[in-house]
Amino acid sequence: MRLCQLLFLGALAAHFPGIAAAAERPVVVELFTSQGCSSCPPANAYLNELSKRPSDVLALAFHVTYWDYLGWKDPFSLKIATDRQERYGRRFGDGSYTPEIVVDGSTGMVGSYRDDVDRAIVKARANGTTIADVHVVTKDGKAAIDVGVGQGTARVLLVGFDREHVTPIGRGENRGRTMAEANIVRSFRSVAEWSGAPIHLDEQLPEGELVAVILEAPDGRIVGASRAIAAGSS
Fold first, then answer.
1. What is the value of pTM for the model shown?
2. Cα gap 81→60, rounded to integer Å
3. 19: CB partners within 8 A, 6+ apart
4. Which pLDDT does position 53 carry in this prediction?
5. For the chain, what is the largest distance between any 2 Cα atoms, rounded to a whole number of angstroms?
6. Which distant-in-sequence residues (6+ apart) come within 8 Å of 117 by Cβ?
7. Which of 42, 158, 182, 191 could link 48 by a cystine bridge, Cβ 3.0 to 4.6 Å?
């Protein structure tokens, strides 16, 4: 059934390029956090809740490195997370801080301000742009990625993330806490440039239990996203 649906959508998209813009996709919510930050647990708890909404939100926790030298080295910190937040900080003019949530690559705010984030998600759902449909299937150690027809250009970003980790914190600002954290990014890389024509990619699976693909416009906005399904899933 899924194959028939994909073929049907592909045929429609070939004749009506505007259909790609109408495809539903999850709103991408990026939390920049650290286990060494005492202000982060409320934002982590909020992201944990968002992670349980698989249909309309793609929640991702990016653990930054700049807290690693202040008493506790976060085992999930990634330089690429720090670098990504720095780019957002330059765009938004607010620098890098934790906890920060960025919604659809368009707006950043304090990650524990739930009402602000909720409003940003609603706005992104209503006004966000999707320039192409994205499908990802994982099988035999590969991620098969299909990006459909559309208008514009975007980077194709492959994300690997773990569903959940529970970590006892031995030092630093959160000493004595046990932190449960969801959707922790373990790998994040660009795999292609898309420029309007359909493309198919076969990539090695990234590190992480789960896989997603994001389309990022040249201005940093998120313009497409999809979670992977395992081959054979209904």
1. 0.89
2. 11
3. 9, 12, 13
4. 80
5. 59
6. 29, 46, 101, 103, 109, 111
7. 182
